[in-house]
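Key idea: predict the complex, not the pieces.
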Amino acid sequence: MSEPTKAPAASGGSRASTKKELPEHFKSYKHVWVFIEQERGQVHPVSWELMGAGRKLADKLKVELAAVVIGPEGEATQHAATEAFCYGADLAYVVADPLLTDYRNEAYTKALTDVVNTYQPEILLLGATTLGRDLAGSVATTLLTGLTADCTELDVDADGSLAATRPTFGGSLLCTIYTLNFRPQMATVRPRVMPMPDRVEKIAGRIITHPLGMIEDDIVTKVLSFLPDRDSNKSNLAYADVVVAGGLGLGSPENFQLVRQLASVIGAEFGCSRPLVQKGWVSSDRQIGQTGKTIRPKLYIAAGISGAIQHRVGVEGADLIVAINTDKNAPIFDFAHMGIVTDAIRLLPALTEAFRARLSPHSRDRIAS
Amino acid sequence: MHIVVCIKQVPDSAQIRVHPVTNTIMRQGVPTIINPYDLFALEAALALRDQHGGEVTVLTMGPPSAADSLRKALTFGADRAVLLTDRFFAGADTLATSYALATAIRQIGETFGAPDVVFTGKQTIDGDTAQVGPGIAKRLNLLQLTYVAKISGIDLTGRTITAERRSEGGVQILQTRLPCLVTMLEGTNEIRRGGMADALRAARAEIVTWSAKDAGVEDISKCGLRGSPTIVKRVFAPSARAEKAVLVDFSERAPADALIADLFKRQPKLEDELSTLARGY
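Result:
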């Protein structure tokens, strides 16, 4: 991704490469692909979210949508491929080999690069997970093509080029990036940024298998062991129905307790904006925004968060955003649905008490009587 | 051992302001810092050097003023600093950046000794792509270990490295061969405060400054804007929603329970859902 110092209107013009002049050998590159990420037999939901986005691109381009499944031989990989059809795939490419049981960069890079070079897609989408980012960077560099990270919007323009929009400058602005003259056009998208498409029961369609063509001795990196996270340690922030988060407006790390108290009363997950992680008040797995988690809850309460783009892109999918901020000009009021101009430190305890009273099992009887 | 750490000088994003009319970044007066993620890479490198002996070379690509960040890295204890600066590098995307840095690392190897490990941060706070580390590894044909939480061991005679790598559902313990590239996870260590000796040395140190030619770049068309397959067509501020937030009052006349009543009026199903969730806790 380029990092322009000014708007392209001022810096463009002289660049030959801003014109689309696709070299002849790239013209055969067709169709939209989604890399289906699985780790230890589980497909990461971001892959299905990407199938939804990829379906729209493929329909607009009037081409096919393919799933690329890479993994060990056996049921899990087969199942991932057949599931892909339920999420909109027209066909699936499968590279199944025992050497692909654990994710290792060397083997996965070879598998994906080989399939791309053989079957030549115009667009390749991957989830911006630790696996997806590790793989995408290697594959794009091997193919010497463009890769746009952490897109928040994907579209195709009139001449059929992928328009990938993402935050830039630490999330102060958005930019739209093109890979005009190289193929495939690659992009990653973070989990939860795209809505989960409906699963429609379908019989599997065309499956094209491709060999890995490696032996264990070809792969230098060995997995000595794997320590799975304990579920209790994992925050369910990205998939929570209700989220309460705090920002710098809380004033002190102690006041973050107010966020946690409200969250516990309404059964919410708690989170925070980036500055709080940078200050060390809250651990990084609780960060919401472009560089943290993207959330799509039914209710999101943001307390003392100003709403920089980097935060905005992580919460825009929420059904109802309630913002509490002392500054009535804070950008968060541009995208919140309901705003309360007040000090979160005063309002949070009051809200906690009011919710507790309202949600307690007897409260409705009391109101009724 | 010889360790190369790639760092980037970035604007302190907490202080970036966008011009309300032109939608351009107002850079004046915005302080620059070493990309915070890179400090975890630097500390990991310094710790390895302390343990195994050798040297740490910090490398950056940027304008001449990026020398400030290199000098800062020297005060933390790095032994040598290399600045890659040339107008040909301007406007580079991640692919062109990885070409320039990989070329410079090769030159560093020839000039000061081949590196055993190349470190980068997980990502930068201005670009946020996490693509340059894997890009450098691929171009130098190094094995890559990304999102490393801990380097458990290095065997310089057996030429192996063992590390804990964060993955989606847990931690992989990986062993691979040296030389390799490591991208270090945040929060895994704390950058040391350099001593007085380091500060004095840093102040006097000569920053090795290389142009594209000095670094051994053979093909200028692979650098900067020309070498970048991606093109930024449009930079813009997001539009406000059609309707801004409905501002509601919080006061003695409108206490918190009135707010909640208002909330539930907007989302009629919310009250039942919250009641269910609240009971689960």
